[in-house]
Structure formats: structure tokens, C-alpha cells
Amino acid sequence: MNFSIKKDILLDGLLNVSRALSTKNLIPILSGIKFELKKNGLYLTGSDNDITIQSFIENKKENISNLENEGSIVIQGKYIVEIIRKLPDEIVNIELIDGLKVLIYTKNAKFNLNGMDPTEYPKLDLQTNNKPIILDKKILKNIVNQTSFAASNQETRPLLTGINFKISNNKLECIATDSYRLAKKIIKLDGKNEDNNIIIPSRNLVELTKILLDNDDEKVEMYVFSNKIIFKFDNIIFQSRLLNGTYPDTSKLIPEEYSLSIITNPYELYDVIDRASLLMSDREKNIVNLDINKNNVKITSNSPEIGKVEETMDVENENKETLKISFSATYMMEALRAIQSDRVKILFNGDMKPIILKNPDDDNLIQLILPIRTY
Amino acid sequence: MNFSIKKDILLDGLLNVSRALSTKNLIPILSGIKFELKKNGLYLTGSDNDITIQSFIENKKENISNLENEGSIVIQGKYIVEIIRKLPDEIVNIELIDGLKVLIYTKNAKFNLNGMDPTEYPKLDLQTNNKPIILDKKILKNIVNQTSFAASNQETRPLLTGINFKISNNKLECIATDSYRLAKKIIKLDGKNEDNNIIIPSRNLVELTKILLDNDDEKVEMYVFSNKIIFKFDNIIFQSRLLNGTYPDTSKLIPEEYSLSIITNPYELYDVIDRASLLMSDREKNIVNLDINKNNVKITSNSPEIGKVEETMDVENENKETLKISFSATYMMEALRAIQSDRVKILFNGDMKPIILKNPDDDNLIQLILPIRTY
Q: Nearest to residue A93, comparing CAs of A58, A65, A59, A54?
């Protein structure tokens, strides 16, 4: 293994695959990044057995030069990333010497690193023979940003830590719920797609969005297997395991009719609720009260030790009904932020039934929050 | 107590005085900020008994309006700062009602806060009757930035956690040392100043620099008392306790003559040492070796488990002597960063004697580092 490579390109690849490395990993070899030099280029792989990320740098003269001898080695992730990041040179030379020793050098600097045996690295099958589902990068990012926060972070109900991706009739329905709230996003798919129903760990999808760059017109290929999913884009392969089990049926949770609906600006309402929840000593249980009148709403909160807050805000009340209802400030704020529109429609069926939020001009995103009984 | 105040001005004042609040404070009243409204304006005070900061907002129409009834109240620091920060309005109204209840309101929002009894707040004497020492803000900031890192953070030798300010013959000498390295900065004072010799806690001076804004042409007045020091600038009073005791005499540590001196760019040398120390597993004990040759230096480090680094760098070697010496990478990097010049002169007297760094064109800053014996 012997090659010269453009520093910035190598650093990009290393930063992407190092997202799969876990600091908590108990398997020593998985603290490393696998370098695999082939005639067609350099494959970098990082994995924690849950996520695997592979980045490919093609052997063309803008990237790699002096490629001699194929070969592979595993290098400690935290050292190699910092070394490459901090080298001032434009080109870095990498050479495998003495079996497991790696020499990284530029004009003035020489790093001799102890590598790890690549034959000990887990065999990872990143082949994709089946037919992919194709999504815009931007749409995939939106799905994750608009649903992942509603997934549970409690391992007591593992299935709820995932996002349910359900494909039927060329429609993709993505649902996350922690059983107190729910986020649902529906996407129309292009082409013909097989029906499918899988659960992807939510935090893996959040990691995926971090390496989805903002060249939004590009596509992501999604390959579904029985126990894993592979996303392919740019020169990157991102693999996540799936959660095994049947996701709860939530279709009956969302009512067809509502007794009261208001329309307002979600950003302004977000700020009002943010201020109303300021005086809570325990931010996790921050309950605010909403008092809906004919032309405005009053948001109040009360913390006997610290004090109380009261704020009014004008809204459009379509039915001119009134209602008092209480809910978690955090849940409402996260749902409002996901609306991504200047207007939000909030629907109610009395003070004990789910609250629904959606964009008044778009039925493809639904946020649901259960109210909290305060009396 | 009843007044209206420009939100941004109140927030500025609150942010400044809240730097004195400690989250670890066991005295409940010190988690609050004292509001004291007088005819001439609003005094805000925060204190943890170690540092006290007072900010004064003058009663003039750009700041305060509708000032009625003098009075005072102590309000929980963490709540009042967040409330004022998050209010969207330009003007905030504050009113003391019912003894210890504070009403903070704008057009749409009303916060009722439980305050604390101002008579329980410690009596702090911030009077300054004696004659101040006057320094440029920029110079005071530089003193702290160029010396504080060399102070000890170990409470086993409390005096070394401070910076020694010694005034004699209208010269201010500031020294910090943790006994392995030393930083010394000398400033010529204007006017006539009494001789003095005090030790100010280093971390208090670092807090002070955070509220010294960058209007660099302005002055800071320094008032020295037997057990405290007061800094006055803008509308702020910053008080710190002093450390009691006699600071060690370090005057004999800095040699008059040197057997070897090199001149180089401190930023480049910083980067080289930074890279050489990358492979250390314990960053606290990161020893690098310097091998001085006629026209260049070689920096090496070796960590048997991880690997080794070797980098060469051209330097001016004034005496054409050679030397091998080892030192802490962290100490050398912090000293190099304090030089604040494009050139640094590094002076040696063999491999066991202190290393001295200074700006070749300015004798007022000296950085000293003890070498480490590696054989």
C-alpha cells in the first residue's frame, strides 16, 4: 500500500466514516478506520456494528497519485483524523511498511503509526443487488428532521426508538412516536416500488443526515434488506441495522374531525411557549396551559416557587369556540419547529383528546401531541 | 420600585454581573442579582463572595423612563437573564408589588417572579476613596492573556493560583508561575504610583477580561486595598479578593546569559509542536524533544503504543551551537501563543536549565519553561 492523496479529500472521507466510530466500543479494532487501497481507488470504512460508513476516493489525478501496491490496514480513528486535519501540506503520502506500520509523510513531517491487522476487521457485506428506492437528499433530510425528535430515547420500548418507514402503493409513510406524541410524514415516491415495512433506529438516521451534504438536487438510493438498510449517495455507503418487530398501528390515533381549529405563526407561538416555560425548575416536565378565546390565545404557566407567566397572542380561530388545555412545552415547541412554514393549523377535540398540528396548505406532515390533565 | 428600561441595556448589565454568580454557591441569596433603583439610576449587583460585579445604568431617557419609587429586590439570576434575553419587545417594565413579588411586563407578556429579601444580601463596600492606578483596557487584557495560563490550578499551593502584581518605581511587574514555568510581563505606568505588592486570583482576572469590552482606547482604574482590589471601567465595578501571603521571589530564575539562541516564527513552531504531540495518549504529560542543529530544528515525539512523529523546521541559529532538549508540549505551545509577534527568540543554557522565550524586539514579556529530563 503506497499512494499520495490530496489532503482535503482524504480528510473529508475520514470525517464522514469516523461518524460511525463509537467511543464506547469494546471491540478494539472498531476504534480504527480501515484503509483499503485498490487499483480503482481508496476505500475508507468505519463501523460500530450498528452503523457502518464507507467512503470511496476514486483513483484519478485530482485525488490520488503514485498509487503502487494494493493493500489494507486499520488505523486508530482519533489519531489519523487529527494528523490529516493538522498537516499544512496539500498532498499527503501514505505507505505501509513492515506489515502493520504505516508511514504518513509530507515534505517536513513524518508520522510512524502502529496500525491494526485488517484481517481482524469484521467482514461487512455492503453489496446492493436489489432495486433501490430513490429519494431526493433534501426530502430524506426533511423526513428525519420532521420526525426523529418524536421517537423515544428510552430503551424500555426499543421499537419506539426507531422511525417506521412504510412503503405501499408508491407512497412512503414515516412515523415516529414515543407514545405521548407522534410525527408522521408522507412522501410520494417516483417509479414503481415494492411494498415494505421497516423500523430504522432514529439516532442512526440523525447520523446519516449529518453526512448528507447540501447539494440538494442529488439523489439517495435506499436498499432495504431483511435486517439492514443501505443508503448510497455521492461516494458514500451508509448502512444501518433495522429494529426487529412490528411497529404499533397508529392509524386510528389521528381523528377525522375536530371541534376547534386555530391558525397562527408557528415561530411566534414557539417563542411565546419558550418564554412561558422559562420559569420551570425541571425542564422535562414543563407544562404550559393554553386558553383559547375567540380572537386570541392566552398561554400561562405557574411554578409556585419561582413565579408565573402569562402571555397573549392573536390567532385566527376558525370556529370561534373556546377551550382550555395543557401540554408539554417541549413537545409543542418541537412539533412547531417541524412545521417549516409561516402558518400552522392547530386542531383540537376538547381538553383530553390529541392535539394535531399541520401546515394548512399541506396534508403530508402531521404532528400529534397528547394533552396533559392538570386538574 | 417601578421603572421602564431599554431591554438591550438591561440585558448587557445583567450578563456582566451574572458572571459573578456561581452555580456552586451554597448561600441562596447569592444565586440572585440585586436590583437597586435610585433616583440617579439602576444598580445591578452579582457576587459569589470572591468576585463582586456591579453595573450601573444611568437614569437618562436613552436608558430608563417612568422611574417612580426607589427600592430594591434580589431576583434569581438564571431566570431574570433568560426572561430579559427572550422578550421580543424593545422596552421592559419592572415593578415591585407586594413586598417581594416582582412584575416584569411588556405589551403581551407578564412575568410574576418571587424575589428575595434585599436586606439579606451581603453588605458590599464598593467605595473607592484612594488613588487609582490607571491602565489601558487593552494592556490589562494583554497582561492577563500573556500570564494567567502559567498560574497553577492546584489548590495545594494557593498563592501560585494567583498573579503577582508588583508596583515599584512606576513600573508594574506581573508574574504567574506554577513552579514548572513562569510568565512575566512588565508595564511602564503613567503618573506617580505608590509601591505595592499583591496577588490576585488568576481565574478572577480571566473573568474580568471577559467583560472588558474592546473599546481599547479606554482606561481601567485599579484601586488596591489590603484584602481586595477594585477595577472600575465604563459603568462597571469589578471587585476581587486578594490572596494573602508573600509571593515567591522568582527574580533569580531568569539567567543573564545564554549559550544558544534561535529565532523563528512562533505560530509555525506552535503548529509543529501541536502535531508532534498528537500521538500522546495522555495529553497532560506530552513530552516532545527538540534537536537544535545549525540551521534547523528537529521536533520528535515517541509513544511506544501509538507511534512516533518527526518534523524538521528551518530556524535562525545565532550561535550555530547544537543542543538536544525535552519539554512539555502544552507549556511550550501556551508560551509561544503568548508571544503575540511574528518572531520569537528562544534562549537555552544546556539541556537542564530553563528555556526562555521572548519577542526579539521587546524585553517586557518573558516566558520561562523548565526542561524535562528524559534519560
A: A65
Cα angle value A349/A351/A353 (rounded, 5°): 50
Measured between beta carbons, which residues in chain A are less than 8 angstroms from residue B275? 83, 86-87, 109
Burial of B119 (0-12, 13-18, 19+ CB in 10 A): exposed
3-state secondary structure of A367: strand
Do residue A83 and residue B278 have CB atoms under 8 angstroms apart? Answer: yes
- Residue A284: the pLDDT is 46
Record: contact A307-B278, CB cut-off 8 A: no
* Euclidean distance between CA atoms A369 and A230, whole angstroms: 32
Asked whether the beta carbons of B218 and B320 are under 8 A apart, the reply is: no
Comparing CB atoms, the residue among A101, A109, A307 nearest residue B113 is A307
Chain A: residue nearest B299 by CA?
A109
User: Which residue in chain A has the smallest CA separation from B308?
Assistant: A112
Locate A253 and state its grid cell: 390515533
**HSE (CB half, 13 Å, CA atoms) of B195?**
2
Nearest to A86 among B87, B112, B278 (CB): B278
Tens digit of pLDDT for each residue in B130-159?
A: 899 999 999 999 999 999 999 999 999 999
> CB B274 to CB A86 under 8 A?
yes
In the structure grid, which three cell numbers stand for residue B205, read together? Answer: 482576572
**Are the C-beta atoms of B29 and B121 separated by less than 8 Å?**
yes
Cα–Cα distance for residue pair A86/B278, rounded to 1 Å: 9
Q: Could you read off the pLDDT of A16-67 as tens digits, one per residue?
A: 999 999 877 788 999 999 999 999 999 999 999 999 999 999 999 999 999 9
Q: Which residues of chain A have pLDDT under 50?
A: 283-284
Distance CA B142, CA B163 (A): 13
Which amino acid would we find at residue A197?
A: N
Which residues does chain A have within 8 Å of residue B76's beta carbon, measured at their own beta carbons? 306
Please tell me the distance in Å from A286's CA to the nearest CA on chain B: 15
Task: Judge: A111–B87 Cβ closer than 8 Å, yes or no.
Answer: no
